[in-house]
Amino acid sequence: MAHHEITFPITDPADILKLRAGDEVTVQGRIIGIRDRTQIRIFDQGVEPPMDLSGAFLLHTAPGVRKVSTDAEGRGTYEKVCIGTTTSARMVRFTEGLGEQYGVRAICGKGGFPDVAIEPMQRLGMVYFAIVGGAAALETTQIEEIEEVLWEELMPECLWKFRVRDFGPLIVGIDAHGNSLYHDVQARAHEKLKELYARL
Amino acid sequence: MSTITTTDLEGAVEDAAAHLYVWALKDIPQDLRDALADARDRETSKTGIRILETIHRNVSIADEQKNLVCQDTGIAVYTCRVGEHFPLHPTRIYAALKAGTARATVEHPLRSNAVHVLTRENTGPNVGYRLPIVHWDFIPDWDGLDVKCVPKGSGSENMSFLKMCVPADGVVGIKKFVLESIVDAGGKPCPPGIVGVGIGGSADYAMYLAKEAIARPVGTRNSDPLVAQLEDELYGLLNETGIGPMGLGGDVTVLQCHIEHADTHMTLNPVAVNYQCWAARRASAHIAADGTIDFDREF
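YS: structure for the whole thing
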């Protein structure tokens, strides 16, 4: 189990291709918060995201924040209260579009993606990072600043840009080579179930 | 923890609710901390240990910084045990719980999760039509009120399952359905958590009982020895599935399995599963007839 440190957004695909399922990763730089309604707007309502997503690291989140001011154009600035990560599986159908149309290279959430994400992630050179779900008090300390908030009307499911330091630990749940820890764990568990049922 | 005295009983219930909601979100109960520590000691997979150590670190940071353990402030679910002589009608108790939930959300501030189910528009500070949710229990020959607040996150609530087994499926059918549900849930509900199981009653009542089960102190056992035996057995079987912390594989898949039961129709055998994540938040208070609030009382 190797450990890697990666700064996002990335420009070199090798930063993703070097990762293997089970590796641990610490992230620096800038990451983008996104959630159900944000992606429904992009893909189902056909609204172009007003933020560059190429080489991006997306975090499945709807943060708890406090509004500190509003600028002349009516845009709010926010400070963090508690920022954590939500269940990814609900949003799996957006994976291919995020990679193909917008160049997203990493998606981070909790609970994993089902197997349908494995092929597009391999084809497009993407990874899924598993964060420790529920560990929001820790995650909040690793987010240095909320740099930008777009689509505020979707609060809290806006497009968020965070500057992070030592964000993690993250585990590579699905790599860009067709490996998924979730697939492996499920396959073993279903085998085990047969054995357990025989004992009942 | 602390005692507040007030002459305004509805205000006292509102104060209790406002305090309980935030307290539950920030300070997880000792029995849960013990169960998480035990999980860390038992786990042998490298990734699993890393996850359980991170959970431990997170709980310590929440304590030090007085922050929320998890960002999902959930839907506020309360359990009220109302004494028949408690001098405030349940209608007013409900209004006070709603006001307290909203006040805590605005004052902290807490993330507001409540939306209209069709428009998905936010309805306000974690309250709305039929929100918060309250479970009622009425106690004869008593003049007190116990309130328990269980903020229920969506990651675990989405992992709720109901099966109308038939009598011929027997207890084996119950066990299979619980096992299959938790394997299929995988990492989604933030394991290792508490598996709440409701058996018997009707379809809706089985799920209600499953929710009661997740709100019990961790590791308590059903007073019926047969049901308690089933709790022990399922707890052991679930931890053999290998789902592990966050569904990434390991020895510890669940912290506990709690079962609540009710007698049922001769042709029914309902089984409901309601999952509670590792951040199994809960906080309780007792409110006396004179408005004195005691936050130290678990039930």
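YS: worth flagging: Chain A has one domain: 3-199.
IM: good catch. Also Residues 44 and 118 of chain A are 22 Å apart (CA to CA).
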